[in-house]
Write a structure and sequence with these properties.
Structural class: mainly alpha
Number of strands: 0
Shape: globular
Helix content: 55-70%
Distance between the termini: 70 Å
Order of helices and strands: HHHHHHHHHH
Radius of gyration: 20 Å
Number of domains: 1
Number of helices: 10
Strand content: under 5%
Length: 265
């Protein structure tokens, strides 16, 4: 009986974890989609990166695949919790133990580690022998939407999330820092698949901001498939010379059009 109760508790926790991940994805992707693709579609048309709009069947498929991704991410979340309660992680709850400076530093380090992992993992799954069995589903969305953010093959979802348990095994992190990191990650993921560019033309020439990736950057990856592999930052694409040659030209074309539209209004 104890065995059944214990297993029922795990199943319940698993269902809750999946629900949290999937509802969070639907909430933020849904709000973004509603603003850009429904309520403000006409007013924001000049900000489109690609002129056409994806068909409804594509969006339904993205949501379907994202549900399976939520199952994987929910399972990883439970795995992290199990590691913590058994004392295997460096997660700490006493904020004063490391202080505010380290708290901020830990978020930045998580982003840098994740960005490095993502870049090289992303390039790897684009290898011809791996693309079809790992990354093909995500690239069915050649004209991405906010719902593309979690649209992965199950294998890719596992690979995508694998870095998180590794981070908490070696890096002291506060639960709030992990929460902030997850939300920054989701925000970048949705922005990268937004399908619209709302940044100003000077952004990619700014000495600091130019190292942050734009919606145009990842959208071109979905269109071209052989460049622009980074997630948050442009460090690795710049260093490895994998930025698309037309990236700056495309960005200027869209943002200059945005500027002209705003002046005319």
């Amino acid at each position: 009986m104890d065995y059944l109760i214990s297993n029922f508790g795990m199943i319940k926790a698993f269902v809750i974890a999946i629900s949290i991940v999937f509802i969070r994805y639907l909430f933020f992707s849904g709000i973004t989609y509603s603003v850009f693709y429904l309520f403000k579609k006409k007013a924001l048309k000049h900000k489109r990166i690609q002129k056409n709009y994806p068909k409804a069947i594509k969006i339904k498929n993205e949501i379907k695949h994202s549900f399976f991704t939520a199952i994987v991410f929910g399972g990883i979340g439970l795995f992290i919790y199990a590691l913590k309660i058994n004392g295997f992680t460096k997660i700490y709850t006493d904020f004063s133990l490391y202080g505010l400076e380290y708290f901020i530093f830990s978020i930045l380090i998580m982003l840098l580690i994740h960005d490095t992992y993502f870049y090289w993992m992303h390039r790897l799954v684009h290898h011809p022998k791996l693309f079809g069995i790992v990354h093909k589903i995500h690239h069915q969305s050649r004209n991405p939407t906010p719902f593309t953010a979690f649209s992965f093959d199950i294998t890719e979802a596992i690979i995508e999330a694998a870095i998180i348990p590794i981070i908490i095994l070696v890096l002291p992190v506060h639960p709030l820092a992990i929460f902030i990191f997850f939300n920054i990650s989701l925000a970048f993921n949705i922005m990268g698949h937004l399908g619209y560019e709302f940044l100003p033309p000077w952004f990619i020439n700014h000495p600091v901001l130019k190292w942050i990736n734009t919606s145009t950057h990842h959208n071109m990856h979905h269109q071209k498939g052989n460049a622009n592999y980074g997630l948050y930052f442009n460090f690795w694409d710049t260093l490895m010379k994998t930025n698309h040659k037309q990236y700056q030209k495309k960005f200027y074309a869209i943002t200059s059009k945005n500027k002209k539209k705003s002046i005319a209004a």
